[in-house]
Protein: Beta-lactamase
Amino acid sequence: MPKLDCKNEDAFRAGRRQFLGYTGAGMLATLLPGCSGNDDSPPYPQTIAMGQQMIQQAISNAQQPVAGISIAMLKGSTVVWQQAFGVSSVPAQTAATTQTRFNIGSVSKLFAALAAAILEDRGLITLDTPIVQYLPTFSMLSPEYAKITTRHLLSHASGLPGTNGRNLFTFAPVAGYAADTQAELANTHLKHLPGELAVYCNDGFTMIEQIVLARTGQSFASFVESSILAPLKMTNSSYLTSVPTAGSFSYPFANGTQYQEFVNAYATGGLSSTPADMMNLAQMFLGGGMFQGQRVVSEAGIAQMGTDQSTGLLINPSPEWRWGLGWDSVQQPALAAAGLLGWEKDGGTAFYSSEFFVVPKAQFALMVTGNSGYDARKLAETLVLSALKEDGTIAALPAQVSVTAPPVASGASVANAGGIYGNSDSPMQVVANPDGSVVLNQWNGAKRVWTQVGAYQYRSDGWWWSNSDSASYRFVVASGTDESGNAFSYRYLMKRVVPGAGYAYLTLAVGQQLAPLAPLDSAWQQRLGTQWTLTNDSPTAVPIVILGNPPAYLTTLSELPGYVLYGNEDLRYQLFVPLSDDRGGMSVKVPGNFGRDLYEIRFASASSATALTLGSSVYALA
Structure:
């Protein structure tokens, strides 16, 4: 999501999520740090002292201060550290406390997965039954929609386009988001076959809301509150379905104004909670579904959530992505480097960033959440591994991986690698040179030009490096035959980075090579150069209030005939394939995070020049 997403690292998110992921931190006012919490002698003195120092540095950063951060750490059934830093209200300088609630974004996806597990425990669904059996009103334009299962929804493998951006984040509650999402899906195609690949998909979790409602008669928020939050005694957690009249909350402060953020996609990112409450959830995970002697969900349900769902994917060029059900990773890379199995879920909204770690064998968990602007993954990885070393679970920290370019090598061919690579963010251009080096450019949407990312040479480890860039690149071809018997071959530009505390590489497909198409016909040619303004978001929608509803534009790339480029600083920039004179379709299948939140673009008719629909958002000619 927009940061709902998610996806494992803020820097990997794109599209509307990119705006929603970054702007909140930059608009925070100067603040007076404060803290509160448990001052008893802790069992992890070194780790806690390190964490306190790192968090104090984040909230005191003169260039990008973070208003508030809250953290909790669990060992067994004991919360060994909980503390809040900074302020919950910038104008009032109200100190944050351990009862202050933060919007935890995509960490909320774990509650959708738990809800599905509970429904299965009650015999109301099975994970591998097509959801049309529970939602007969659900439909899409691609006939394969009838194969989508609950497992697909919860493991990002459904093929749904991505995220319904309309009224996702607002400054007042907006009802009906899930129903609006289902209605929009009826008029769009799948972006890939169910189970073919996994690409971060918020709409899959939103559809869990509809399944819960259909099978129980309860709204998703009501079901989670009665079946999960109440038995877990998570008394400082709730979905903001209305303006709250009680409780302590962290408030975004932007452009001199204090707001309250509402995330209307409840299942995918809408829970407001505290790290202390999340430690109750962690105890339930560590207890195999039990909490304080009460069974909340079956042990089999917890095991399913923690099972690697990526093993059957047809296209998976990023082996470090080990999706669970709800979990981003059930083999967390930094913990795997230390020889431990760990589960991780990150989360972000327009103004908040969170990380949740559970380490089953060590009976350990950590939750950190706070206003955007700090590196939640780095903080969480650092503290989890430090604590596990301090208590003797691991003998030593794993070695940090190298970000230094190895020696130049020869022998790699890039003859077929040049061209334009599409994604959900903004297109990439690969210039393949005769000497085997490559130049990477990215589309600068604001200036409508290509901006050079860097020049890279092939190195002895099989990747292309620049001496000035810690990231490295290579090309991977995924080929085979899909379940319909159709042959496929996709060339991906892969990017390798070292996120978090630096203990493991993470590779991502950042673009798919696209072949030129027949020239655009006259109906599409006439639309090039036009600009469009969003008309049907709530006036309280975060992009409307903060960005001022910037127009989007339609254009094309001279280097890639036959495609239409559409976007702005909010939506980002995507390449569409004309499906007809009144509809443009999705052009890429990119696993991971750079193929998320794709859209179809529609006009009222082939000759219409005054109305455009993107997802469920309606635009007028500017």
Notes: Residues 45-59 form the longest helix (15 residues). The chain has a mean pLDDT of 92. The two ends are 27 Å apart (CA to CA). The CA atoms of residues 143 and 619 lie 28 Å apart.
